[in-house]
Design brief:
There is one protein chain. The chain is an alpha/beta fold. Helices cover 35% and strands 17% of the residues. It folds into 2 domains: 141 residues, 3-Layer(aba) Sandwich (Rossmann fold), CATH 3.40.50.10350; 221 residues, Alpha-Beta Complex (Glycerate kinase, domain 2). It is built from 13 helices and 15 strands. It has a 6-stranded mixed sheet, with helices on both faces. The protein has a 5-stranded parallel sheet with strand order 2-1-11-13-15, sandwiched between helices. The protein is elongated and about 75 Å long. Pfam families: Gly_kinase (PF02595). Belongs to the glycerate kinase type-1 family. Keywords: Kinase, Transferase. This is Glycerate kinase.
Length: 378
């Protein structure tokens, strides 16, 4: 029997590889002769780099970069494909978790550190960049990231703009003569799971700004600043980014990537599934096992279990999902390729106990699933 195990992480508890290992341990008790392929995956959000490094046996790079407010933080990114691909999460350098709640102000925060991570990866000679958006503390359109890579953003007097989203309101000219030329020579894929435009009622500032500390007044100020950013990009670079779906992702980082690089915005789950070659791995599988911390109505919207099931069903494989808990609307996943869902919590317990006992509970549940399947096929 050949079994492919392709789960996401259980947030705040286990990495995707740890989940996969626990599932294997449980099933191996019933099927000791089975072949197990562990393929930790993610949907492009938190944990994506960890999953890809684990799945592709990659390595980590770590360096001090500037955080959202200009202080130094330690950021890391992954290198896979024998050094050819860098996998970067912008939250590592520019994430909301790096800013204390009392200091969150998207008028001031900058994505500069994300650009430093990209620059470091380019120094290693990579030919492909995978950039995960999400979890950002910034609303600067990716301007800080681009400044770290050599672009210059000037006011009407020819002076460099300061950091932060508010400064874009003073933008008069963009100079890309010193933008790192290596950006044009690498393939860039951006994991983007929203279709928000840059500006307006569904734009970066209105939808995501309040999560980053923006008041109603700040939202209007930031939206006007991003409108100015889009106008000058179109004026100087001849690229219209304002209405492109996804341009508003991560405080407008989507627009920055589209306007200044050859980046392609793709759903995170699609990028990850391609990167781990899941479609090839499931061809000879007798069973595909996936899962995540919670399966509910939102799982069908680009989450890992449904992404795995979509690939598995193309090869006509049965799919079982193992999750930490089941929420409202979980039945919707049965219409998206998952054949059965099992949660792992055996009794009433605290959240802390769930986290502490997660691996044991997953292993036990996986063993029970294998026994059930074995009973039905023997």
């Amino acid at each position: 029997m050949n079994i492919v195990i392709a789960p996401d992480s259980y947030k705040e508890s286990l990495t995707a590889m740890e989940v996969a290992t626990a599932i294997k341990s449980g099933m191996k008790k019933v099927w000791p002769q089975a072949s197990f392929e562990l393929v930790p995956v993610a949907d492009g959000g938190e944990g994506t780099v960890q999953s890809l490094v684990d799945a592709r046996k990659g390595t980590w790079q770590s360096l001090d970069v500037r955080g959202p407010l200009g202080d130094y933080v330690n950021g890391r990114y992954g290198i896979i494909d024998d050094g050819q691909t860098a996998v970067i999460e912008m939250a590592e350098a520019s994430g909301l978790h790096l800013v204390p709640p009392s200091k969150r102000n998207p008028l001031l925060t900058s994505s500069f550190g994300t650009g430093e991570l990209i620059s470091d990866a380019l120094n290693l000679g990579v030919t492909k960049l995978i950039l995960g958006l999400g979890g950002s503390a910034t609303n600067d359109g990716g301007r800080g990231m681009l400044a770290a890579l050599g672009a210059k953003f000037l006011d009407k007097d020819g002076k460099l703009l300061g950091a932060g989203g508010a400064e874009l309101a003073n933008l008069a000219r963009i100079d890309v003569s010193q933008l790192d030329p290596r950006l044009a020579q690498v393939q860039i894929e951006v994991a983007c799971d929203v279709d928000n435009p840059l500006c307006g009622a569904r734009g970066a500032s209105a939808v995501f700004g309040p999560q980053k500390g923006a008041t109603d007044r700040m939202v209007k100020q930031l939206d006007q600043a991003l409108q100015r950013f889009a106008e000058i990009i179109e004026q100087d670079l001849k690229v219209a980014v304002a209405e492109i779906p996804g341009a508003g992702a991560a405080g407008g980082m989507g627009a920055g990537m589209l306007g200044f690089t050859n980046a392609q915005l793709r759903p995170g789950i699609d990028i990850v599934m391609d990167a781990v070659s899941l479609s090839e791995k499931v061809i000879d599988a007798d069973l595909v096992v996936t899962g995540e911390g919670r399966i509910d109505a939102q799982t069908v919207y680009g989450k890992t279990p449904v992404g795995v099931a979509r690939i598995a069903k193309q090869a006509n494989k049965k799919v079982v999902a193992i999750c930490g808990c089941i929420g409202d609307g979980s039945h919707a996943v049965y219409e998206h390729g998952i054949d059965a869902v099992f949660d792992v919590v055996p009794a009433s317990m605290t959240l802390e106990q769930c986290f502490t006992n997660a691996a044991d509970n997953i292993e036990r549940t996986a063993e029970d699933i294998a026994r059930l399947i074995d009973m039905n096929i023997s």
